[in-house]
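Thread: quick sanity check before group meeting

JM: Hey all, I'm pulling together slides for Thursday and realized we never actually wrote out the predicted structure for the chain we discussed last week. Dropping the sequence here so it's in one place. If anyone has concerns about the input, flag it before I start.
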Amino acid sequence: QVQLVESGGGLVQAGDSLRLSCAASGIIFNIYAMAWYRQAPGKQRELVAIITSAGSTNYADSVKGRFTISRDNAKNTVFLQMDNLKPDDTAVYYCAAQRLRTTWGQGTQVTVSS
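JM (edit): ok, ran it. Output follows.
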């Protein structure tokens, strides 16, 4: 059974940093692309960042230069380092494991106050 558990969310001020973690179990982690999505109230879920099994990364334009996705295959964990946070980054952040289908974590709340 695939399980993704996110952690690291919280309430911060604009300009602060947070590091999200997602621990995966029940999958051969190093063959999956791993991604972070977010969903703000009243908005659709959107892709924030993705890292392939080979380590290639891609980011939403809104977070380029501020967020960094990385993975530790030895620990079955993917990270999202978020710097210079803005109020518009406020959302529930979801971890996703992607191969033939997408498996979702339960989400972690990130709130950025101005």
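AS: nice. The first strand starts at residue 3 and ends at 7. The CA atoms of residues 5 and 23 lie 5 Å apart.
JM: adding both to the slides.
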